[in-house]
């Protein structure tokens, strides 16, 4: 199976960086490209807006979160595109993945912190269950 169009669901965490490394490995096999999707749910965007004065600041913060992943893609010279999407991470990513023309989805098994492990563990589970293409969950 050829994995040329890879969707990487990322939140900038250490786990999602490991997922990025795996996605890059897959992309290199078939000279593929990676779409990075970062989901912003309602509560995140509300607190972002409250704690940061401008939309520009909010964008900047989100870009900083993804910077390690983007740096890795740049360093490995992989063709990529970043998509910021709104909605609850599980369903939003599933929706994006199923509407796109992807060969597989790569996602980290856990997210940003210990507290969120349960929640984000369920995000990767939701993605694996509902996406129509193969899903690689990276531990």
TrEMBL record:
Domain UspA: 2-139
Pfam families (UniProt xref): Usp (PF00582)
Coiled coil: none
InterPro entries linked to this entry: Rossmann-like_a/b/a_fold (IPR014729), Universal_stress_UspA (IPR006015), UspA (IPR006016)
Family: Belongs to the universal stress protein A family.
Name of this protein: Universal stress protein family
